[in-house]
Amino acid sequence: MTHPLETDNVATPNGAPTPAALGFAMPAEFAPHDACWMLWPQRPDTWRYGAKPAQQAFVAVASAIAESETVYVGVNDDQYENARHQLPPRVRVVELSSNDAWMRDVGPTFLTHPDGRLALVDWEFNAWGGLDGGLYFPWDKDRRIRTKIAEMLGIPRFAAPVVLEGGALHVDGEGTLITTAECLLNANRNPSLDRAEMETVLRDYLGVTNVIWLPRGCHLDETDGHVDNLCCFVAPGEVALTWCDDESDPQHAICREALAILEATTDAKGRRLRVHKLPQPGPLYIAEDEASGIDRLSHSHPRRPGDRMAGSYVNFYIGNSVVVMPLLDPAHDGAAREILQGLFPDKRVIGVPAREILLGGGNIHCITQQQPRP
């Protein structure tokens, strides 16, 4: 039986019903998935040495997640054969052109309905700031990815009237969303919207009722402070927060500022949040040889020797039976892994060497997007 709207593209800004009004909502990442979506890295001004080292890291991430659920990797046509050769047979490679490989941000935010339907939100995208601090130009291929995935899956696409990236939000699936003012209220995203207006959009498109605002994200995060690098839900009423004990590190104040807000707030169910601290790796910096292999283009974000990277163990992916975490610093990898295993005792925590992903500006959560099970 065909559901209403099953293959329609639904635009809502002009008075049509919003996703929430139709009964759709965004489930938590720790809810069951049908699949995970990724993109293939190849951009030479983001990834060093023609993205060959990054491709190995992406293969490791995709292989780990594929133990848990179906993985789709979207690939530009000129990299299709290379990607198909490198990725294991159980990973599905599809031609899906992109400007870069950050599926969390350029891909859809999926919604589910109590009657079993799946839909997606198509946010506006301007490459993390457009011509005012954006990371590259153009972003035309990225902008079409959500429409293409809606077509591939035959599901409704709700076109949202705001610029927003998936890494800028986390939900608990029970009505609570967490984000940062640094990103969502940034003048290079939606300069005409204030906090109350943005909250209305989040409620209308994601079905949430409570929005927790943290002031800022991780120190020097080039996404303008995505929350998925700082804090995430690991269960209803529980969050993981990156943590720094070095008082001389700018991240020290950011963590404590976030902790004070998290401990003073309640979620949509009236619960006080339990905060689990994940140690910060590093600090980590770009080495000379790591910067030398990157093409220097005037329209892309510079990556220079000595630049500090926004490394974080919070940037992990929660699969059906696995948690895939970045390995970034031998001094802290083990402790972070032990904490995550304690938070997810029924899942296998898989550590993947992820410095090559971090060199591009993000990590495992940034390159993945879960497709929930309706």
Automatic annotation (TrEMBL):
InterPro entries: Agmatine_deiminase, Peptidyl-Arg-deiminase_porph. Keywords: Hydrolase. It is an enzyme of class 3 (hydrolase). The active site is at C366 (amidino-cysteine intermediate). It comes from the Bacteria. The keyword Hydrolase applies. It catalyses: agmatine + H2O = N-carbamoylputrescine + NH4(+). SUPFAM superfamilies: Pentein. This is Putative agmatine deiminase. It comes from Halomonas heilongjiangensis. The gene is aguA.
